[in-house]
Q: What sequence folds into this?
């Protein structure tokens, strides 16, 4: 049995449906009611399995699409991000601005996560993904207006 959510799994379920067609042909198209009922039940089961496998395959494809989008974004941002203090920032004319991104997640996985203020703390920011803490003074919000050209 191939892994679920693969083309092989879909093909295998379709082969189940083909087996039903083969059985009908081999009978010379002469089947009693009970055999016909059984074969129709097999056919319905194969179609249901095909639908399920196609749904799983669709989610595999969607995950891959999301991964491609993420990789493309990482590629685009790679040239436009700058480290300042303990975080990364987008840049305008090479000058960092805006909200800080987690430096650990960017350097390890090329993923961009904004740091959040820790609840009830003005001194600490936290990455929602890796949960690393950062000092707020080392990861400030940089106002874009103040670096306007
Ligand atoms: Zn992180």
A:
């Amino acid at each position: 049995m191939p892994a679920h959510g693969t083309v092989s799994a879909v093909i295998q379920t379709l082969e189940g449906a083909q087996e039903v067609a083969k059985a009908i042909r081999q009978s010379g198209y002469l089947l009693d009611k009970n055999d016909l009922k059984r074969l129709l039940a097999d056919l319905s089961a194969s179609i249901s399995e095909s639908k399920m496998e196609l749904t799983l395959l669709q989610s595999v494809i969607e995950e891959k699409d999301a991964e491609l989008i993420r990789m493309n974004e990482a590629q685009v941002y790679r040239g436009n991000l700058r480290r300042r203090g303990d975080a990364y920032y987008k840049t305008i004319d090479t000058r960092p601005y805006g909200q800080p991104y987690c430096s650990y997640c960017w350097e390890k996985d090329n993923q961009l996560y904004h740091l959040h203020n820790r609840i009830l703390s003005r001194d600490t920011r936290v990455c929602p993904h890796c949960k690393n803490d950062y000092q707020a003074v080392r990861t400030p919000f940089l106002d874009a207006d103040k670096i306007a050209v």
Q: What stands out?
A: The beta strands are 81-84, 87-92, 95-102, 116-117, 124-126, 133-135. The two ends are 63 Å apart (CA to CA). The mean pLDDT is 92. The chain has three helices and six strands.
